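Tokens for chain A. Residues wanted.
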């Protein structure tokens, strides 16, 4: 690709985005409040001193800054006439995500949320299997995600800045549950220990139960564990004619078990280490869409819906009530 990409941010996630853009042959300019010269030197990029200078010189931007800054930066990019790729969550409130989407639409631009889990082979295979009816009607789905607590990073524990464990970590599986099982009609959430005065505990687990319009039930768990906790994620999706299972902690890859000798029998998809980086797959697809190619598998509306669900989870935790998502605007 011959485009010039404006990378905004130089934190941990910037490294995997840079690797993907380099693999795609893009020219990358980087701007950040801190770390841009070091990132540029490490990867052979061009560091830019100001956001305005970057926006003037690029074809589109890739925002990889802390979540609370996404709205301001994305609006600046849209004002400058630039399409936007933005790390999840799109913003920290559904209203702000809607505002970004509307601003892009008015300007004739695109904004794509980087929900990278849609591009992991096991999750993409599960989506395809469910949508093609290989396991029949989904009854119960379980998704889990465990990571070492990012407490040392400061802003993560400030729920107003990160959204806490649900908005920062579980948002991936909120998106997956809706993508694979369909629109959500109700949601109930609990967290242990609870947040105190807007500060997340260092070690915390959140549980969310979703009811889908299809009648399927999804149970989601996200955990920030003790320092050094090995990252793990996975799912089990049970349908009327089979079960899909995957765990990143296992070497078996993605397993599909079909009942009654269903078409194809067992299907084993190797672990994603045998595939290209999902970040590369994601950014190739999003960049192609910005060039007028096929619609990507994730759109602004998906990013908005994931934030709606995360917001509803916080409301459920605060009130102890089940939230009716059919009137909240999720998925619109």
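Reply:
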């Amino acid at each position: 690709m011959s485009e010039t990409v404006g990378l905004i941010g130089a934190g941990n996630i910037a490294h995997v985005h840079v690797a993907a853009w380099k693999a795609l042959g893009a020219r990358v300019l980087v701007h950040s409040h801190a770390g841009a010269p070091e990132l540029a030197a490490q990867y052979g990029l061009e560091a830019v001193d100001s956001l305005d200078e970057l926006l003037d010189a690029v074809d589109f931007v890739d925002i990889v800054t802390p979540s609370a800054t996404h709205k301001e930066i994305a609006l600046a990019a849209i004002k400058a006439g630039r399409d936007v790729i933005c790390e999840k969550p799109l913003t920290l409130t559904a209203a702000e995500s809607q505002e970004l989407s509307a601003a892009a639409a008015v300007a004739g631009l695109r904004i794509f949320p980087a929900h990278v889990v849609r591009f992991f082979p096991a999750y993409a295979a599960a989506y395809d299997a469910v949508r093609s009816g290989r396991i029949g009607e989904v009854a119960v789905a379980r998704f889990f995600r465990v990571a070492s607590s990012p407490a040392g990073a400061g802003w993560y524990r400030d729920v107003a800045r990160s959204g806490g464990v649900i908005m920062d970590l579980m948002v991936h599986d909120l998106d997956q549950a809706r993508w694979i099982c369909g629109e959500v009609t109700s949601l109930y959430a609990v967290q242990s220990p609870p947040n105190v005065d807007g500060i997340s505990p260092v070690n915390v687990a959140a549980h969310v139960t979703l009811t889908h319009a299809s009648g399927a039930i999804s149970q989601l768990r996200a955990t920030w564990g003790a320092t050094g906790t090995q990252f793990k994620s996975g799912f089990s999706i049970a349908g009327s004619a089979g079960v899909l299972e995957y765990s990143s902690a296992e070497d078996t890859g993605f397993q599909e078990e079909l009942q009654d000798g269903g078409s194809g029998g067992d299907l084993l998809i190797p672990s994603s280490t045998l595939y290209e980086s999902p970040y590369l797959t994601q950014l190739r697809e999003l960049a192609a869409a910005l060039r007028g190619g096929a619609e990507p598998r994730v759109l602004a509306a998906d990013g908005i819906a994931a934030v709606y669900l995360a917001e509803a989870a916080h409301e459920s935790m605060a009130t102890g009530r089940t939230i009716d998502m059919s009137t909240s605007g999720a998925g619109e």
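Confidence is low (pLDDT under 50) at residues 261-272. DSSP finds ten helices and 15 strands in the chain.
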